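#random but structural
TW: two for the price of one
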Amino acid sequence: MGLIFSGVQPTGNLHLGNYLGAIRNWARLQGEFECIYCLVDLHAITVPQDPAELTRSTREAAAGLIASGIDPEGSVVFNQSQVPQHAELTWIFNCIARLGWLNRMTQFKEKAGKHRENATVGLYDYPILMAADILAYKATHVPVGEDQKQHLELSRDIAQAFNSMFEVDFFPLPEPQIFGGATRVMSLRDGSKKMSKSEPSDFSRINMTDEADAIAQKIRKAKTDPLPLPETVAEMEERPEARNLIGIYAALADEEPEATLTRFAGKGFGDFKSELADLAVSTFGPIGSEMKRLMDEPDEIDAVLRRGAERARAMAEPVVREAQDIVGFLRP
């Protein structure tokens, strides 16, 4: 059995895109892999955070994972800052990775924008910390989206460079875990843009904490086009809003888009949205209810994260200690 490592930013407002694109699939991996799921609060502070909000959103993200079916007794669920081995291994990797490798990271360029000189060193070094996250556990597989593939390649490069520099076969080269069932969920207000917590309109997304009425209302108000629903997947290509809503229905129903089209082809969006709203409320609504229950019990969440951090430290400590021995650090 391989070892999965994946992380989620604890920056609040988890939404349907996070669930269908990643979290639901993480829950499904639990039977196939040993799984470690990390709330990456060290990564979060590479950009300014309000301290109280970071604490709250870390608990919220943990509640979202648990409510979505991730079992904290089977999988390891913790927040990154509670396991010092992540930071310790990052420094070793800082002394192995090359500036040229980091200069090629496109995500830094996108996040730093025109004010690159004002970006934090942490934001620049973000991919090195990600490599340490993965390799501190000798993870073999990492679920990644398109925006993280380059970072995973860097993790492989760093593992290979460490092994080569010290003439050891110590770190594995982690493989991307590709989901056949991952769904790219777009904005309900613009089918050409990814659903995002940063979009100003709350009607652009379905939050994991939305009540049933809010879920139904957002789907009813979702942008569509004037034509009936298409009959084939090919017809959806030029109709981003139709493609998005059909994709959401298919994902929630756990079926292929072709099956959804067969059921609704030629119908108007009014009837379709009504059925989509019912499906979303029945499948997604209970997750929000459980999240809220957990958020009302912060001690329960904190206990889960504390136990997860203890298990994570027990796994990472011998790996990082051996890496330090390989480097030549004296530990009297």
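TW: number two ↓
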Amino acid sequence: MAGATGFDARRLEAIDAFVAARYLDTGKLPHAQLLVAHEGEVVHFSHQGAAREGGASVDERSIFRIASMTKPVTSLAFMLLVEEARVALDTPVHHVLPEFKDVGVYNGGGGGVPFLTKPCDEPMRMVDLLRHTAGLTYSFQQRTNVDAAYREGRLEAWHGNLDLDGLVAALAKLPLEFSPGTAWNYSVATDVLGAVVQRVSGMPLDRFFEERIFAPLGMNDTGFFVPAEKVERLTDCWTFKPGEGRVMMDRGEKSAWSRPPTQLSGGGGLVSTSLDYHRFNTMLLNGGTLNGVRIAGRKTIDLMTRNHLPGRSDLASMSKSLFSEAANAGTGFGLGFAVNDDVARTMIPGSEGEFYWGGMFSTAFFVDPVERISAVFMTQLSPSNLYPIRREIKTMIYAALN
């Protein structure tokens, strides 16, 4: 079975059988949805497993928490402001967020002892926020006294006391883990970038997303929370606990995502559907347009999807992150995405220039402008590095190419 789709249909169907046997029948995952497209046209869209415990299967209307798949959206939003010459990639962050003007690099202390800092070698620039070289971190990394301070301050609590401006103010009182531009660390940098979008545009982040990206693309089921009339479509979300296995984390019917957050997280706050994110992917694949509507310039997308790590190095050499959603070797980082820079070093099939990312609940997407294909994978289980399913699915998708 082969046709104009560019794929062998039987090999695509084999992915569903593999996922069912290895992950669904064994109870490792609650459900799975896979969308594969060629030239923007959906060629495979499968739904397996119950959307909610004991309920009906996931379907094309199912809404998922996409976590860090929010980051490319925030990155694009920033680049729309770059296109208008309202900000630039080399703009120091403190020019827009003056709270960061005197931030320093960790040089001792913490754990009840006042922090000691030293000056940054270079100021934190906007490009550092986009490529995670800003020196910021995440509280869940649990590696340093700096991320311990993030936990103590509950800085990343979306329903806590801090809005985006409050987050920026709190972060600016803490040291950076390293001087900007000298290392890579997965972090709240994209949340800070969301604050930049708000300040530069003079518009709340959710409204900017809606007016500039979601409405023009027809992404009608994507946002920072699920409105009451759509809550029945929100899937259950699970987490893995050692010794217990898969346990419920957030029930769809009583979800934290059913009410507006205090802190609009440009790093991980969105919910979406496979079809909505497919529209986003297709716009990127098309160089910034979808169905005749231009969201961004072609050269803007081209710039975003190149490796921006200093010296075109890869994550294997630059990452200081305990947790990474990318296979490090051969993987660069662009302006909001991981970028495949050396297929041989990644050790799985792919194309140089392919870009991708995923979320903490094991969702993932990739776009390959060489083969003109894209994919969206949805499920709801944290942590995302528990199983190698995203690597396995990508391998099988490339194996199905004609």
